[in-house]
Amino acid sequence: MKKLLTVLVALLMVFTLAACGNGGEGGEQSGAKTYKVGVAIYEFNDNFMTLYRNELENYFKSLETDDVKYEVTIVDGKTDMSEQSNQVDNFITQGMDVIILNLVQTSSAEALIDKIVAANIPLVLINREPLAYDADGNILDEAYEGILNNDYVCYVGADARQSGTYQGEIVAELENHGDINGDGVINYVMIEGDPENIDAQYRTEFSIKALEDAGYTVNCLVDQVGNWQQAKGEEICASALSQYGNDVEVVFCNNDAMALGAAAAITAAGRTVGEDIYLLGVDALEECQQMVQNGEMTGTVLNDHIGQSHTAVDVAVKCLNGEAIDNYYWVNYVKVTK
Ligand code: BGC
Asked: Which of 168, 191, 267, 317 has the most crowded Cβ, counting Cβ within 10 A?
């Protein structure tokens, strides 16, 4: 009887403890610590950022143990800076333990960083790097003050100059170096991403620089902003092909989504990649890797969303554990050709 009573009392204590557990800021739940993680993505309707955010979520899940849980809240900024600013305010009110932020506008970085730092919440910026500019609006080759001056603010990303250079090198390495008609000039179309992401500017600049550095002459037929979107890529490429026809030798797209659109326009115009035109993207979406293998795309560059998302999560966890972090974390691009 006494034994039975002891067991009952013990059971009662276990249940009471479990019932008292609450989530919340580093809260205890069934003996486990639960951290609240706020993730703000610039736009859910973006192929690359969808892969990235799914991997962020999966990787946090995979790190959970009996003792540590991560309650991850992911919100869609819908390419609207004031919406994202409100979302960050909500994260602060909700007492997030760490925030992962994919800015809608890098030009608004300071205001957001300031309020997150003032709330004492560690911040991991991803994918859209805030940059330092001089008074004339030129990019300064130095770290961003808001990142450098705060121990718990960092940026995780890839250096887009590398991806641009790789695109140019892929063309330079072709037998005819992109000069299909042999007139000594590479005539190209450039389809750019949203200028709020420096990746667009760097890929545009460094793809061409790589060709020029290798000694080739280039001529830009069309250079337009497609905002990373497939439909825009198709529209810009279709109109370039109808205006310049066979003069178009190379189509550079700042990302694969726009290259998918351009590929459709190329087919619709009766042109054949690898024979009478070349097509380049960046990201190495699975579909595009397949197209490179089939010859429907000349090449792409792996934008490693797995490496970047895992690094972002690892750094966020370091912050949660109170460990020191670096200001910048870089993940390499990789050339993808047949
Ligand atoms: C990717 C694009 C994506 C953009 C979003 C870039 O690094 O290459 O595909 O749309 O980030 O900011």
From this structure: 191
